[in-house]
Task: structure prediction
Amino acid sequence: MPAQLAVGASLVLMSAVLAVGASRFPAEKGFTVLGAHVYPYAVAVFLGIVGVSISLQAAGLRSPADVSDGITGAIPGGKAGALWVTAGLTICALLIAHIGFVLAAALLFACSAQGFGSRHPARNLAIGIALALPVYWLFTIGLGVSLPPLVNAWI
Amino acid sequence: MPEIFSSLATGFTTALAPINLLCGFIGCLLGTAIGVLPGIGPALTIALLLPITAKVDPTGALIMFAGIYYGAQFGGSTTSILLNTPGESASMVTALEGNSMARNGRAGPALATAAIGSFVAGTIATVLLTLFAPVIANAALKFGPAEYFAILVLAFTTVSTVLGSSTLRGLASLGLGLAIGLIGLDSLSGVARYTWGVPELIDGIEVVLVAVGLFAVGEALYGVLYQGEETGSRHRLTSVWMTRADWKRSIPAWLRGTLIGFPFGSIPAGGAEIPTFLSYSTERRLSKHPEEFAANKGEGAIEGVAGPEAANNASATGSLVPLLTLGIPTSATAAILLAAFQNYNLQPGPLLFQTSGELVWALVASLYIGNTILLILNLPLVGIWVKLLRIPRPYLNAGILVFATIGVYGMRQSSFDLLLMLAIGWLGVLMRRLDFPIAPVIVGMLLGPMAEKQLRNALSISQGDWLVFVTQPISASLLALTLLVLIAPPLLHARGIRLQEHD
Result:
């Protein structure tokens, strides 16, 4: 099965990356018996073996049973939905420090809701703000979490 | 023995203090609510609430977290039975059997057996915890780095071999977790490993970030891509009383479920799915009414709900054993609880019983109290929990992502962390799609660095002598056990006995 073969190959690749990286660590050991490179090498070897085994299994045997949750039917979002959600998270991540938590979270909420199938962007944005504001107060003032404000401590 | 009882009694007086009782109550309430809601689980919730450790004293906070842990299971079974929407994967079996019962008009007894069974299992498991934990903690005082390393190696093997669909995939997930755990500054030698010049990676990747990314973001994305509309149907709540026959069939199932769940909870077996599936197949095999099981196209057998629910709860309590006595978390939620302890500068392990004995015993006492609260809370309030699910799914999922953002951003105020969380979320989607288990990643991430540290300490002390692992008796027996775990499944397999849920 091609997907599994790809997984096996990427594991081997990861193993190689780990090994190459480990070979570059300075070898001076100081007080330790095992340098910083030993364990990474071990993990690299482990990953390499697992990667090769998975590739072999993929190439040799029949494909594993298809994963199915038993829930079929219309996908509310599908690929477009996933893109909306990803966009929402990305926007929030990039803008949160600039426009403050409340607005960034509201944007995230609206984009995600869009991705999950809701088709009322303006309403979602409003709900997003209505949700983000009290949550912001709860976490910043109530719990002392440091979330970026837009204007002052309250918004 | 008598000291155990007196310590427990003191624990009760602390746990029953009004403020702690309130914390426990809030925890149970919150836990049940999130157990009902799909997509958000106890691990994520506790991670979000970690900031309260700055304001609330440790006893109260830990009692609340424990309440959330248990409450989530109660909530999950309620929705599984009534709406066929398991709140988490371990409730899948309950959904199968319990919803069958509900569709045939027996929702009440299904709920009752789930609630009472969880209470019975939780209480028995807590008794076992009470008896075993001090013993293990005492034994662990003699543990040196070699012994800890041997335990961790054992943990790695149990995670990978006693697992869902494929040992090889479990190992792959574990390997991924180990690799992620390598990122960061090496504490012993000061070498920055695999950071590639990115400053945010110097401290390594936080467990909470990976957990939130895989579970919250990954779940949300997976839901968007692959799941169809909810087809859950509501069932009217009939009388909650169980008949005598129900009791007769449930009680042995509860006991068996507890005995299966507790040991599996205390080893890193990658989640509560194993004990619940195992309990289900045991009940199916032992039942005098096999035709009633939903898997056999029946109307739903009560043992099929009683056993797995008990196993689920017992395994949650079981996971507290290695956490409290050895400081080794065996599930994602246990990992976050460990983080909570560390926020208070408390290190779970054998010393915890010595230095903060009152806290530990108050926590244990709160488990008993929490179980009772949950039993009383759940059955009458079922209607309310079900109403929670009326929130439209898009808003629910979007809200979960907002909370995930708070949880991750609140840790280090880093946008990089948020983007990383997104990337990990996509990784989670890939893993789920390709049927790679997720729990071993978290275990690998946490236990990998621990294992390396112990390995190096052991070798430092023994001055480079590798034989120390087999010459020390405890370490040697643990390694022997590891070998046993590795070769037992293929041997059993050859004899036709399977440990996995696919029959």
In short: Chain A touches chain B through 79 residues (CB under 8 Å). DSSP finds four helices and no strands in chain A. The CA atoms of residues 106 and 127 of chain A lie 8 Å apart. Chain A has a mean pLDDT of 78.
